[in-house]
Amino acid sequence: MKTALVCGAGGFIGGHLVKKLKRESYWVRAVDIKEHEFAPTHADEFLLVDLRKEEHCKKALTLNNGTFDEVYQLAADMGGMGFIHSAECEIMHNSALINIYMTDNAAKMGVPRYFFSSSVCVYRDMQPGEPEMTEAEAIPANPDNEYGWEKLYAERMAMAYERNRGMTVRIARFQNCYGPEGTWTGGREKAPAAICRKVAEAEDGGTIEVWGDGTAIRSYTYVDDMVEGIFMVMHSDLVGPTNIGCPQYVSVNELVATVAEVAGKHINIKHVDGPVGVQARNFSNTRIYSIGWQSKFDLKAGIERTYPWIEKQVQTAK
Ligand code: NAD
User: Fold this and answer.
1) Of 27, 38, 150, 213, which sits 20 to 30 A from 15 (CA to CA)?
2) Could you give the CA distance from residue 297 to residue 301 in angstroms, rounded to a whole number?
3) pTM of the entire structure?
4) What is the whole-number distance in angstroms between the Cα of residue 37 and the centre of ligand 1?
5) C-alpha to C-alpha distance for 262 and 254, rounded to whole angstroms
6) Domain that holds residue 186
């Protein structure tokens, strides 16, 4: 039986990845600084650790009968645009420490295959209509925020360990990911979850506030597609970062319209000042298509699976 360590398994994508690995018959140790808020863990073992501490990384990586076959590093101090713009020091400090200690100790302990979760936040701001960017075009670098700079640093660190320490490293740059069992309130939620929550709280015919003018262009990847992509990238020969993203690009206003349609409500938008992030994103998926990955869920299909879960959280919290 193959063994896997999932770091950040008390979080959204890590929690779903554990389920995927169990379906693939792995023995899984899940680690996080907190337990999962929304679902019981499906892992064989769950350890509470603070991966900013080197000894906790060593504890997470230690198996009685050898090393893990695969390590998936998804732990990060993480949130939507509101968090990313207000917690620059925490992101630069906490996520960098996690990656420094995890990468170094995984290599020292002889982990054969290591996955690092990066982000399309490593790319510069784009204008709508610009040709799509390949992975190599992240350099020369000009990310919009410190979160993107930390991811770039951690990518380069992992690649240095692959070149110099013989650890096979696979890196994926995730597009915005959404789905059930993710943060939906409290300040760290990302745009799809925040819009679902606001629509769930609104009356039919009501008005919700949206940061910015609603024209920013994004693509949103449903979490089942994301974990499938993570698993495929990890088992591929793709050296260096690989984008994972649904190729359907929509404006924030279109995202609201999709959520409102799924909710069966007429919703008005009030645009207010707030951290918006980049104006547009348009990435090449050529690399991940080369290993046979395709997103299966368009935005409507993903929201149809996400909105009812968030609506239920809103009702329960009342
Ligand atoms: P998440 O916040 O739900 O999960 C991250 C987990 O890391 C959390 O459970 C958190 O408690 C844990 N963590 C933070 N500090 C820790 C520490 N010191 N020790 C141990 N655990 C710690 O976020 P997510 O959406 O599941 O993201 C997973 C990964 O994917 C992150 O690296 C994130 O940067 C990356 N990513 C996510 C998205 C997205 O849209 N969700 C997009 C691009 C990249």
Assistant:
1) 150
2) 5
3) 0.98
4) 13
5) 12
6) 178-219+248-281+296-317
